[in-house]
Amino acid sequence: MLRYLRMAVRSLGRKRFRSWLTIGAVAVGVTSVVAIACMGHLGKEQIQQELDQLGLGSVMLSVQRKDTGVTLSNEDYETVQKLPEVDGALPVLMQYTQSRACGLVTQCAVWGIGAGAEQVIALQLLHGRMVSAADVTEAGAVCIVDESYARTMYRRSNIVGKEIVLTLDGQRQTFTVIGVVRSGGGLLQGMLSQILPTFLYLPYTTMQAATGSDALDLIAVQLDEGCDPAAASERMVQLLDRRKGGEGLIRGENVAAQKENLGQVLNLVSGILTAVAAISLVVAGLGMMTVMLVSVNERTREIGVKKAIGAGRGTILLEFLTEAMLLTLTGSLLGLLLGFGGAAITAALLQLPFHLDPAMAGGLLLFAMGIGLLFGAYPAYRAAGLHPVEALRRE
Fold first, then answer.
1. Please, what's the b/e burial string for 176-199 (b: 16 or more CB within 10 A of its CB; e: otherwise)?
2. Residue 179: CB partners within 8 Å, gap ≥ 6?
3. Rounded-to-integer distance, Cα 329 and Cα 326, Å
4. Residue 84 — φ and ψ, nearest 5°?
């Protein structure tokens, strides 16, 4: 094999420019596949992480249809909270509205939550404190804001003690900031600012007092570890249906299953994009086959001489296959280096975690080598099949 490798290097060195063009074509194909696959993986991980930060427990309970007049109440929340499989429950209200501070007006999503909300939804406290039981009991005019809101309005992170004005049910009300959290999906807010605006959090009783209704939009439930979310959701739905005196009135949504389904969709999209990028590898393989066929025509007399002095079909075949594999291997390694290097730099610039996937690199290398073997086989077969006398006659 070393002899065949030396012969391949010598043969390719005769046409250095053409050889490097072929290597470059393979490298571009591999780089595009690696870049798309890495970016798809990074995007999937980041979106899943942002969805995890949104939290909302393992199961979300809500009414099936709002036009039936059925609502979730504080009593329903207390009933669910006492169930043995429930580790924590949180009453939730949500309203899109406007907030005013420092002379600025911005759209925001106001969430009504209870005490201990950080146990059910992912809220990481940066400054101040969370909503307490006393805030809920007194329906206090206090709020928690996320860090992006604080920086937008006040150009700094810690704004504990500041006052903001919210419009709730058409009425303006002043609230004192008691805490600043890092939550709400920073990446998602940046990409989908119209759908996921800034998040603010109030005691749910404060929102009920402002709207004049004790109805809850949903109950977020955190289940005990090891509990089956689907079975637990069905039991809770049946319990609340009986309380409401009907069937099919309450809906239970398994958040973990929804995230898993979204992950499958993201995997499918990433796979399709990677497959499209892999077409460039096929194009590079066709280009390499063309170059190898030209090389066979240029070296016809050389092949004839080798056959005349005893070289067999297998020797000629292996010689040209080695050249094709060497071109593909060099281009693939260069493409992997450029692809993973570019992905790592992009991840660093976007401050995203980057992990080198050896399995993907190995699989892609084998795929590229297979392309090289496939498209190099025909030129090698053509070269091995030349008759020595006919080859020597050709000029």
1. ebbbbbebbbbbbbeeeeeebbbb
2. 125, 126, 127, 128, 129, 130, 131, 144, 145, 160
3. 5
4. -65, -30
For residue 95, which of 248, 19, 207, 235 has the smallest C-alpha distance? Answer: 207
- State pLDDT tens for residues 123-148: 788 999 999 989 999 999 999 998 88
Beta bridge partners, 382, equal: none
Q: How many CB atoms lie within 10 A of CB 262?
A: 14
Give tens-digit pLDDT for 262-291.
Answer: 667 777 877 787 777 778 778 888 888 888
What is the DSSP code (8-state) at residue 158? -
The 3-state secondary structure of 304-323 reads HHHHHCCCCHHHHHHHHHHH
Which residues 6+ apart lie within 8 Å of 308 measured at CB? 388, 392
What is the C-alpha to C-alpha distance for residues 291 and 246, in angstroms, rounded to an integer? 75
Name the residue among 315, 245, 246, 288 with its Cα closest to residue 378: 288
Residues 59/250, Cβ–Cβ less than 8 Å: no
CA within 13 Å, CB half, 311: 19
Q: Which of 201, 259, 198 is nearest to 50 (CA)?
A: 259
Asked if 369 contacts 329 with a C-beta cutoff of 8 angstroms, the reply is yes
**Hey, what are 120's tokens?**
């059910």
Q: Report d(CA 394, CA 391) in Å as an integer.
A: 5
User: Given 3-state DSSP classes, what are the helix, strand and coil percentages for the chain, each rounded to the nearest 5?
Assistant: 60, 20, 20
CA dihedral for 148, 150, 153, 155, sign (positive or negative): negative
pLDDT at 165: 93
Provide the residue type at 214 as one letter: D
